[in-house]
Write a structure and sequence with these properties.
The complex is a heterotetramer of chains A (517), B (314), C (262) and D (563). Chain A is an alpha+beta fold. Chain A has helices at residues 10-15, 66-75, 123-131, 170-173, 236-244, 256-263, 293-301, 305-312, 343-352, 372-385, 400-403, 421-428, 443-454, 458-475, 505-508, 510-513; strands at residues 44-49, 80-82, 88-90, 93-99, 104-109, 148-155, 158-163, 198-204, 208-213, 227-232, 250-251, 268-273, 278-283, 317-319, 358-364, 388-394, 410-415, 478-484, 486-491, 494-495, 515-516. Chain A is built from 16 helices and 21 strands. A seven-stranded mixed sheet of chain A has the order 8-9-10-1-11-19-12, sandwiched between helices. A four-stranded antiparallel sheet of chain A has the order 4-5-7-6, with helices on one face. In chain A, strands 14-18-13-17 form a four-stranded antiparallel sheet. In chain A, helix 7 (293-301) runs antiparallel to helix 9, helix 12 packs antiparallel against helix 13 (443-454) and helix 13 (443-454) runs antiparallel to helix 14 (458-475). Chain B is an all-alpha fold and 314 residues long. The longest helix of chain B has 36 residues, at 87-122. With 262 residues, chain C is an all-alpha fold. In chain C, 72% of the residues lie in helices and 0% in strands. Chain C starts with a helix and ends in a 5-residue tail after the last helix. With 563 residues, chain D is of the alpha/beta class. Chain D has 22 helices and 20 strands. In chain D, a hairpin with a 2-residue loop joins strand 19 (499-504) and strand 20 (507-513). Chain D starts with 11 loop residues before the first strand and ends in a 13-residue tail after the last helix. The chains are: A alpha+beta (517), B mainly alpha (314), C mainly alpha (262), D alpha/beta (563). Chains A and B meet through helix 1, helix 5 and helix 11 of A and helix 2, helix 3, helix 7, helix 12 and helix 13 of B.
């Protein structure tokens, strides 16, 4: 589970400038005086990011948006990390062994790790930290650890996890950004104690946060900068201008057009990550006329995905094929026929469904995904060619996720990239999922997906996941036109900055990874 | 005079009570609630139930309002549903920022507007008058966020003189603070200037046709002292009304400028609070804005009375 | 015809005959994003690749009609309540004035947000919301003007005759209040443009793909950072209409205040 | 009268002065005259004769849109028409000063009197603030203003009309100007206050040796103060000469008419009490009263404006209500109409008692009792046409529409002596007299039984006032109208009233037939009123003051100073 883009702070989402993908850049690239940002900034990494809100808290159970997650990784460490190739690599859990049918796992704890308050890391701490999200808990990560039945300390260095259903990729599942390790019984979330490279100095929710480097960080080649300042900047143009005028070193969430512009100036660098984040127009398969499979296919063929990619994302993304697994994922089904824009095929499916014309409404807001409104308008134009009258209903960003999502029969939605294929499928496509936005329930699909999850043989697992993708693509209610890249930018002084396989800003661990030249 | 003021203050409290009720029930009937807003779409039904139980959201709206009112009467504005922090603690720094920005903008805008208004009235029909009125109409017709973007583009991106981020925080010196809020202040000044200038000019011109102005002219006074000593004091009432209206806007209406300049003001806090259905926070912000607005109107009425001798001993 | 009259006339004809004048369809995609002006696109294209001139012309129709309706509602409601409060005074005046003060003291974007989020974002609700919120400001001005007229002898003469309240308001007070109300209406008409633009900041505003100048400034604003002038076209359009309308009002005021017209 | 000899050349010489309005209409054509030091020249003529325009031209000023088109204005040798704006500014207030007709309007309501008075000398750099204030206080004392030391601290609305007029004179003389222009300074005041102000002005002018231009439409008033007179009509000079010559031997026909008209009034005043002048109507004995008022009391807050007033009004009869301003005349009239709800007592129309508040009265009751306001300018809606104004009551009460309404309206306009063609015009385009006739026509449109007239002729010139009074008598005889006629002008009372009711501080102090009340002077207050009426012969002012000083009436009748 991971937070969809900025959907809570509707103003920030709306303020993400409804303009199709185009966010402020810099008129003339001539050099301009760089005003000093104030305070001792020698060795301080200054991040200006979207995703902060006045009601943020550092308690991992409340993490829903980007800024608290970024700060969380500065102060604390997770159990497992995802590397640039998307593989699960050890963090506080040093190694792991599945038994027999991948239902029981044994994890070995890294040794010699000390919390900021001097207490050394023990299995009790890990167990306590995971249990924070189990049982009666307000944590949204409850669904992630739902599969865990038992959590036992084997000895001073090992713990054992027993699952309800087999999961061959349990380590990747445990890489969730909310599973951060704090001392056993810890409750004082205003001053979190972690094993991370930095300690908290100032935290004003929705405004800014400053953390200072702690000596002797166990992680090799990490925590280079002296201090990190994170500023919450909701408005995209404000973020871009802050970088150009030198008030910050790193910004996230810029649009394709600004990225092109930044690329042309040697003083700046642009980082592009393909993390499987996708936009979706979700049809409610239990509501008319979407219950009819042919209607769903007609709508899938009536959208011009190439034009959307070019106009909305300015090319910074890849065309989607109505199923959640991105092309750069090892399990991607290469034999899947693409639903390229074909008005005639759309009409053909309409006639098969016994209709000459179709009149439907698509509810959308920029709170759904970046550029959603413009995408819907482009879709409206394309659908008209196929005899489909698409009414685009612009809904207020405020309360979009409670008033429109899962309520309107056909509405815009979004999903962030998952660490595992099962995570992606479980989120919105398994019958049991609470957020199955298309209400597409196929027992056969559930069986295959769970079988694949438990399958240790990679070849067999790829074959099973392939069938799942075919089922969603041909029969599902999710029209996924685009996989959207994460684009971020910063000054050339920032070094060691790599694209990430998951989320943005190097999986939100940019704080401990980069250094300033 | 005192009786009148007491009555107005009494009315003010009544207004505040009605506003708090209006805000409460309006926010309450918006779709979704704080639990849904906090947990987002991935929330499992159990997690939602836990939060709702812990925040007593199950109770009917009327009961919750009464609890809130009772607490307020004891001076406790309650805690934010989203963060559990004291609402007053969250609001105070941001409201101070809003008042600071509004105050600075007012100090610049009001005298400038009165000056331009008087100057335009003095040389009515002249070149200056036409120039001032065109400037006013121009600033009226450009949305404030666009003025903000243009200022940022010119002063911080192109010239690099001023920061585009108005993020105020403890560590800043006064100079840095002023530097940070210069651009938002200029934006606000341009937004409110036009209305005040036009109304000041109209008020003075309507007084200029009065017989005592002709008498002053026949006493051989310069046009300057004619306007300043005789016309302006008598045109005070409508001018004070329009100044109060615009000061009210500076405090209550600047959400958009806060977003463009990333200024940690109370406007954005309230918009966030409404977004999250965080009722105690919405109430606190609403009351803070309303109290300021009602206070401003009261001061404006009193000043208007003081300026008009006929009403002074009413 | 004065300059401003010509400008307003052009905009009104564009609004009336939009479908015939516009070179392309209102929502038709014709080119790339922010293409420079060319023979086929006199003013280039907008943020989605639609013809800017077409959007301006259709924008004229939507902006003038929505702002016109909202202004009419705002001025109608504001003047009616303002006159009633001035003429009746007493508890009516106190009640309405307090109600208006309440609406005025809630940030206007918040009130708009609440109403639109609760009642939905349809055109009718949008116009009603803007009209209601702006009528509070018209109320304060209309009431102040009416209070100076209500005390005049000719109003007493009419009332002494036994005239009804409606006659007194419509035939005795309104004609004398028109000049000052005209000045206020001119300004209100322009403020409402901007209100629609700032609404789009919250993801509200009119339903796509309809164009309105305020939202067009909003959508094309980022272009200025690329040295492109896309947002200046709608911004200039708003400026021209605002200056035109208010200059015409000034001319009407000058004519009204000449002797003989009292 | 100061010596008329010219010492160092004339203070003011105006040659061939012409002034045109914005519309090109000639307000003043080819006027010439001279004014020596210390000499007072009276400018006489009806409104519209261009008197004020000439007065203002003497300061090189022309009102709203008018332009001085020809002639030379020599003030002590300098031609004002050659001066630029700055040159004119230095002259105004310093070498030539102006006293306006309505002091209440001419004073800035938001500034203390002392500041406005000292503003002239200070701004012209003649005196320091302290010196200017001392001089002003000295002038206050000279003009008998109450507690001179602190009088200047007051604001205009805290001072009576007469006191303000005197303060205005002080303001004008503050810079010791060579020329003083007085534009009808006493017209807006009632009779008793008028004498005091006239006396003070005369003393002020004589004492300072300033030349003065005294503008008025009242011959009797001008006679008391002017050395020479210049009669004007429609902007052209008619006749000029010494005051004594002109009053006794007027040459031109127009001058003779002016003198005769004013004399007629004066004659009636001096006629022996016994013989009722032919002009005074005799109350026709008539049966039932159309209007009956019992124990009427009106209060503003705690202050009683009218207390325990009782009287009756018969059909076709005119009852005059006289008294100084502030005596409650208007409050009485408004209370009868219900415009001001009476606290006590009753008002009944043809035997039926009326509600205190007009809003509770039936449409028929409202129709039969009509009110005509004092100032025609404010009583007519500037935005409506005459046809709409006069026609509305006909449509409202009698439901007439279309052609019938139009012809009835024309008939009414004719009835009041107006050309029906003006039906399409607006009040702003009519003269004061015409507007008052429209007000009366509007009242008649309701075909009332009783007409309450609140000082309807006070704001009009004598000749026009005369026409209105004659009109009202004709209407009374033809339509049997009853009038409740409120006025402070005894001449009017003599010409039109059958019976008189004298009001003093809200109480009826005398009531009866006109001739009886005015002749017998039984009541000291009535005597004082009669004595205060100026007679058209030089020197009357001095006798009146002596008389008043000699028989100083007990302080209860001391003029309250109308406000």
């Amino acid at each position: 589970m991971s937070p969809p883009l900025a959907r809570r702070e509707f103003l920030r989402a709306a303020a993400l400038c409804g303009a199709a993908g185009a966010v402020g850049g810099m008129a003339s690239l001539s050099g301009c005086a760089v005003p000093d940002g104030g305070g001792d900034t020698t060795g301080m990494l200054r991040i200006g990011m979207a995703g902060g809100s006045t009601s943020d808290s550092l308690d991992p159970r409340t993490y829903v948006d980007w800024m608290p997650i970024n700060i969380g990784y500065q102060l604390m460490n997770g159990l497992v990390e995802i590397d640039a190739e998307g593989r699960a690599v050890p963090e506080l859990l040093e190694s792991w062994e599945p038994e027999g049918d991948a239902r029981v796992w044994t994890f070995k704890l890294r040794q010699g790790i000390v919390f900021h308050n001097g207490k050394s890391l023990t299995p009790e701490d890990v167990i306590y930290s995971i249990n924070l999200h189990r049982g009666r808990t307000p944590s949204a990560a409850q669904a992630v650890v739902e599969n865990i039945v038992a959590l036992r300390k084997l000895d001073a260095t090992r713990i054992q996890i027993t699952l309800a259903g087999a999961d061959a990729e349990l380590p990747a599942t445990l890489s969730d950004y909310r599973l951060l390790v704090v001392p056993d019984g810890f409750e004082d979330w205003a001053h979190p104690i972690g094993t991370g490279g930095y300690t908290l100095e100032v935290f004003e929710p929705g405004v800014r946060c400053i953390t200072r480097k702690v000596g002797g960080y166990w992680k090799p080649n990490a925590a280079h900068v002296e201090a990190i300042q994170v500023l919450s900047i909701g408005d995209a143009i404000a973020r871009t201008n802050a970088l150009i005028s030198g008030q910050v070193d790193v910004i996230n969430r810029i649009d394709g057009r600004t990225a092109d512009l930044m690329r042309r100036n040697p003083r700046f660098q642009v980082i592009r990550s393909q993390t499987g984040q996708y936009a979706v127009f979700a049809m409610n398969c239990e509501a008319e006329p979407y219950a009819n499979a042919d209607i769903r296919l007609a709508l899938k063929y009536a959208i011009d995905r190439e034009r959307l990619l070019k106009t909305v994302l300015n090319g910074y993304g890849t065309v989607g094929n109505d199923q959640p697994i991105p092309p750069n994922n090892p399990y991607f089904a290469k034999d899947l026929a693409a639903h390229t824009y074909d008005p005639d095929k759309a009409r053909h499916h309409l006639r098969k469904a016994g209709r000459e014309r179709l009149d439907v409404a698509l509810d959308v807001s920029d709170a759904a995904f970046f550029g959603a409104l413009d995408a819907a308008i482009l879709y409206q134009g394309a659908a008209a060619e196929a005899g489909i009258t698409l009414h685009v209903r612009r809904r207020p960003a405020d309360g979009y996720w409670s008033a429109v999502w899962m309520q309107a029969p056909f509405c815009g939605s979004y999903s962030d990239g998952r660490t595992t294929v099962d995570g992606a499928l479980a989120k919105a496509y398994k019958s049991t999922s609470a957020s199955n936005e298309t209400r597409w329930r196929r027992p056969e699909f559930d069986r295959l997906a769970n079988l694949a999850r438990g399958e240790l043989d990679p070849a067999r697992r790829r074959e099973l996941y392939g069938v799942c993708q075919h089922m969603i693509c041909d029969d599902g209610g999710a029209l996924i036109p685009l996989f959207m890249d994460h684009i971020e930018a910063g000054s050339d002084k920032v070094r060691g900055w790599q694209p990430s396989a998951i989320y943005d800003l190097m999986g939100q661990r940019i704080g401990e990874r980069v250094w300033l030249a | 005079m005192r009786g009148l003021i007491a009555a107005r203050v009494g009315m003010g409290f009544l207004t505040l009570a009605v506003i708090s009720a209006l805000l409460f029930f309006a926010t309450d009937c918006l779709p979704g609630d704080v639990a849904a807003a906090l947990l987002g779409p991935q929330a499992t039904p159990e997690a939602l139930a836990t939060i709702r139980a812990s925040l007593r959201l199950g109770e009917p709206a009327g009961l919750r309002y009464v609890h809130w009112l009772a607490a307020v009467l004891h001076g406790d504005f309650g805690r934010s549903l989203a963060t559990g922090r004291s609402v007053v603690a969250m609001l105070r720094p941001r409201f101070q920022n809003t008042l600071a920005l509004a105050g600075l903008a007012a100090i610049v805008a009001v005298p400038l507007a009165l000056g331009l208004g008087v100057a335009a009235a003095m040389r009515a029909g002249g070149r200056l008058d036409r120039a001032v009125s065109t400037l006013c109409l121009l600033t009226i017709s450009v949305p404030e966020f666009f003025i903000g973007y243009l200022l940022i583009l010119l002063f911080s991106v192109q010239l690099g003189w001023l920061p585009s981020l108005a993020v105020l925080h403890g560590g800043m010196s006064l100079a840095q603070r002023l530097g940070a809020i210069t651009l938002p202040t200029i934006t606000l000044v341009l937004v409110v200037l036009a209305h005040m200038v036009r109304m000041t000019r109209a008020a003075i011109l309507s007084v200029m046709s009065a017989p005592y102005i002709e008498m002053a002219l026949l006493k051989g006074l310069t046009r300057g002292s004619l306007v300043l000593r005789h016309a302006l004091p008598n045109a005070a009432a409508p001018i004070i009304a329009v100044v109060a209206l615009n000061l009210g806007y500076l405090v209550v209406g600047v959400v958009v400028v806060e977003v463009v300049f990333v200024y940690p003001g109370a406007g954005q806090l309230m918009v966030d609070a409404v977004g999250k259905r965080d009722l105690p926070l919405v109430q606190a912000c609403g009351l803070a804005f309303a109290a300021t607005y009602v206070g401003l109107n009261l001061v404006a009425d009193i000043v208007a009375m003081l300026v008009n001798p006929r009403l002074r001993r009413a | 015809m004065s300059r401003s009259a010509v400008v307003v006339a052009i905009i009104l004809t564009a609004a009336l005959f939009a479908p015939w004048l516009a070179p392309y369809g209102e929502a038709q995609f014709v080119g790339g994003v922010w293409d420079p002006p060319s023979v086929r696109h006199l003013l280039g294209t907008d943020n989605l690749g639609r013809d800017m001139l077409t959007r301006l012309i259709f924008g004229a129709r939507n902006t003038v009609s929505i702002a016109g309706l909202a202004t009419t509602l705002a001025v109608g409601l504001g003047v009616a309540l303002g006159f009633l409060a001035a003429a009746l005074g007493g508890w009516v005046d106190a009640l309405v004035s307090r109600g208006v003060e309440i609406l005025l003291s809630i940030p206007v974007l918040i009130s708009a947000l609440m109403v639109l989020a609760a009642l939905g974002n349809s055109l009718a609700v949008l116009i009603a919301t803007i009209g209601l919120l702006e009528s509070t400001r018209v109320y304060t001005i209309a009431r102040a003007i009416a209070r100076t007229i209500v005390v005049r002898e000719f109003v007493a003469a009419a009332r002494l005759r036994g005239e009804g309240l409606v006659w007194v308001l419509a035939r005795e007070i309104l004609p004398n209040a028109l000049p000052a109300l005209a000045a206020e209406t001119g300004l209100r008409f322009s403020f409402i443009f901007l209100f629609i633009a700032s609404l789009s900041f919250l993801g509200l505003g009119i339903q796509p793909p309809a164009a309105d100048w305020g939202s067009m400034v909003r959508e094309n604003a980022p272009a200025i950072n690329f040295g492109l002038i896309a947002p200046l076209y709608p911004a200039t359009a708003i400026a021209l209409l605002t200056i035109g309308v208010n200059r015409l009002v000034d001319r009407y005021l000058a004519a009204e205040s000449r002797p003989g017209a009292a | 009268m100061s010596a008329a000899g010219a010492t160092a050349g004339p203070v003011l010489r105006i040659e061939g002065l012409s002034v045109h309005s914005a519309g090109g209409v000639a307000l003043v054509e080819d006027v010439s005259f001279e004014l020596a030091r210390g000499e007072v020249l009276g400018l006489i003529g009806e409104s519209g004769a261009g008197k004020s325009t000439i007065g203002l031209a003497a300061l090189g000023f022309a009102r709203g849109g008018c332009r001085i088109t020809a002639g030379r204005i020599l003030l002590g040798g300098t031609d004002l028409r050659l001066l630029d704006a700055e040159g004119l500014r230095r002259v105004r207030g310093r070498r030539a000063a102006y006293v306006a007709q309505s002091a209440a309007a001419a004073f800035d309501p938001a500034m203390r009197l002392i500041d406005q008075i000292c503003e002239g000398p200070i701004r012209h750099g003649l005196m320091s603030r302290r010196a200017a204030e001392e001089r002003a206080i000295a002038d206050f004392r000279a003009l008998d203003l109450p507690d001179p030391a602190t009088f200047g601290q007051r604001y205009a609305h805290q001072v009576s009309g007469g006191q303000l007029q005197r303060a205005m004179a002080v303001m004008a003389m503050a810079c010791g100007p060579e020329l003083l222009v007085l534009d009808e300074p006493t017209t807006a005041l009632d009779v008793t206050t008028q004498i005091e102000v006239l006396a003070h002005l005369k003393k002020l002018i004589a004492g300072s040796g300033t030349a003065a231009l005294y503008i008025s439409h009242d011959l009797a008033v001008v006679a008391q103060i002017a050395d020479r007179l210049l009669v004007l009509r429609h902007g052209k000079p008619v006749e000029t000469g010494s005051t004594a010559d002109l009053l006794t031997r007027p040459q031109t026909a127009y001058a003779r008419a002016l003198v005769a008209e004013r004399a007629g009034v004066a004659l009636a005043a001096t006629a022996s009490a016994a013989a009722p002048s032919a002009a005074t109507p005799v109350a026709a004995a008539s049966p039932a009263a159309v209007l009956e008022v019992r124990g009427l009391g009106v209060h503003y807050g705690r202050q009683a404006a009218v207390s325990d007033a009782s009287f009756t009004l018969a059909p076709g009869e005119t009852l005059a209500v006289i008294g100084e301003s502030g005596s409650g005349k208007t409050s009485l009239g408004y209370a009868v109409c219900g415009l001001v709800p009476a606290r006590t007592g009753s008002v009944s129309l043809a035997g039926v008692e009326l509600a205190a508040d007009y809003a509770q009265r039936s449409r028929e009751q409202l129709r039969r009792l009509q009110l005509v306001f004092q100032l025609p300018d404010v009583a007519l809606n500037p935005r409506q046409t005459i046809a709409a104004i006069v026609g509305r009551p006909v449509q409202f009460y009698f439901g007439m529409r279309g052609q019938a309404l139009a012809s009835r309206t024309s008939e009414l306009l004719g009835l009041v002596g107006l050309d029906p063609a003006i039906a399409g015009r607006r009040p702003g385009e009519l003269s004061g007299g015409q507007k008052q006739r429209v007000c009366i026509a509007r009242a008649l449109a309701a075909e009332p039984d009783v007409l309450v007239c609140d000082e309807v002729t006070a704001a009009l010139d004598p000749l026009i006032a005369e026409e209105i009074l004659q009109l009202q008598r004709r209407l009374q005889e033809r339509l049997g109208l009853a009038y409740l006629f409120i006025t402070h002008d005894l001449a009017t009372v003599r010409r039109i009233a059958h019976r008189v009711l004298v009001l003093w501080r809200g109480r009826i102090v005398a009531q009866g037939a006109t001739a009886e009340i005015l002749a017998e002077r039984r009541h000291p207050y009535v005597a004082k009123l009669c004595a205060a009426e100026p007679e058209m012969r030089p020197g009357w002012l001095e006798e009146a003051l002596a008389r008043r000083a000699g028989t100083e009436p007990s302080n209860e009748f001391q003029s309250a100073g109308g406000n």
